[in-house]
UniProtKB/TrEMBL annotation:
InterPro entries in the cross-refs: Lysozyme-like_dom_sf, Peptidoglycan-bd_3, TtsA-like_GH18_dom
Name of the protein described by the UniProt record: Lysozyme family protein
Domain Peptidoglycan binding: 96-157
Lineage, broadest ranks: Bacteria, Pseudomonadati, Pseudomonadota, Alphaproteobacteria, Hyphomicrobiales
Residue intervals of the TtsA-like Glycoside hydrolase family domain: 14-93
Pfam family, any one: Glyco_hydro_108
Length: 263
C-alpha cells in the first residue's frame, strides 16, 4: 500500500498545478498551487486572493491531505494508482476520480472507497489500472466545454501522470532500474506506434474524402451536393478525432521516454 506516499504524489501534481493563476475561463477561479480560493476559504473563512497567493507550504500540504488524499484513501491504494487517482481528484474532484477508478476495476461506482473497491484495486493489474484510469480521465476532460482552451496542457499532464504513476508502481514492485527502463521504453514505443497509425489514418480519411462524389457525378452528370456535404462532415469528424488521439499518444510517448531516461 501507499501509506506515506502523499509527498511524492503531491510533488508530481504541483509541477502541473504551477503557481498563481486567475484565468477568466477557468471555472475554478483564482488558484494557487492548485488550491482554489473557495477551497482555501473552507479552511480559512474570508481569506483574500492575496492570502491565497501567499499560502504557506504547511497549509498546502494540510489542504491536499484533507481535501484530496484522505477522500481517495490514498494511504490504502497501491503505489502509482494513488498518484493517478489523486491527481485526477485534484483536477476534477475526489469523488469523480474514485467513481472512474471504480469503473476501471469493475465495482459499483459510488464515489466512496470501501473494502470492495480496495480488494478489486489490489487484485487488478496495476499498470493497466493506471493506464485505463488516465484514458478515462482524458475522455472526461474532452467532454468539457473548456476542453479547447486547456487541451494541450491537460493532455500533457495526464500523459506525464500516467508515465510517472507506472514508474512509481514498477519501482515499488521491486522492478530493477534497468528492467524498469526497458518496460517504460516499451510503453513509449507502443504509444508512438499508435500515434503513427492514427496520423496515417487521418491522412487516409482526408484523402479519401476529397475524392467522394466523383462516381455519382460521372453517372448523373451532376454532383450530389447533399451527399458530398454529409460525407465531408463525417470525414472532418473522423480526421479531427484521429489527429487528436495521435497528438495524445505522442504526449504519452514523450512522457514515457522522459521517465525511462530518469529511471
Amino acid at each position: 500500500m501507499a501509506s506515506g506516499n502523499l509527498p511524492a504524489c503531491l510533488k508530481v501534481s504541483l509541477v502541473h498545478e504551477g503557481g498563481w493563476s486567475d484565468h477568466p475561463k477557468d471555472p475554478g477561479g483564482a488558484t494557487m498551487k492548485g488550491i482554489t480560493l473557495a477551497t482555501f476559504r473552507r479552511f480559512k473563512p474570508g481569506a483574500s486572493k492575496t492570502q491565497l497567493r501567499n499560502i504557506s507550504q504547511t497549509d498546502v500540504e494540510f489542504i491536499y491531505r484533507g481535501g484530496f488524499w484522505s477522500p481517495i484513501r490514498g494511504d490504502d491504494l497501491p503505489h502509482g494508482v494513488d498518484l493517478a487517482t489523486f491527481d485526477f481528484g485534484v483536477n476534477s474532484g475526489p469523488s469523480r476520480a474514485v467513481r472512474y477508478l471504480q469503473a476501471v476495476v469493475g465495482v459499483k461506482a459510488d464515489g466512496k472507497i470501501g473494502p470492495g473497491t480496495l480488494k478489486a484495486v489490489i487484485l487488478a493489474d496495476k499498470k493497466k489500472t493506471i493506464q485505463r484510469l488516465c484514458a478515462k480521465r482524458l475522455g472526461f476532460m474532452q467532454s468539457l466545454k473548456i476542453w479547447n482552451t486547456f487541451k494541450r496542457g491537460w493532455s500533457r499532464r495526464v500523459a506525464d501522470v500516467e508515465a510517472m504513476a507506472v514508474a512509481m508502481w514498477l519501482a515499488h514492485a521491486g522492478t530493477p532500474p534497468a528492467s524498469r527502463k526497458i518496460e517504460l521504453d516499451v510503453e513509449a514505443d507502443k504509444a508512438a506506434g499508435k500515434a503513427r497509425t492514427q496520423e496515417q489514418g487521418a491522412g487516409g480519411a482526408a484523402g479519401g474524402g476529397a475524392t467522394v462524389g466523383g462516381g455519382d457525378a460521372a453517372i448523373t452528370g451532376e454532383p450530389n451536393w447533399l451527399l458530398i456535404a454529409g460525407i465531408a462532415v463525417a470525414v472532418i469528424v473522423v480526421v479531427t478525432v484521429l489527429v487528436m488521439k495521435s497528438r495524445q499518444n505522442k504526449d504519452r510517448a514523450a512522457a514515457y521516454k522522459a521517465v525511462a531516461a530518469a529511471a
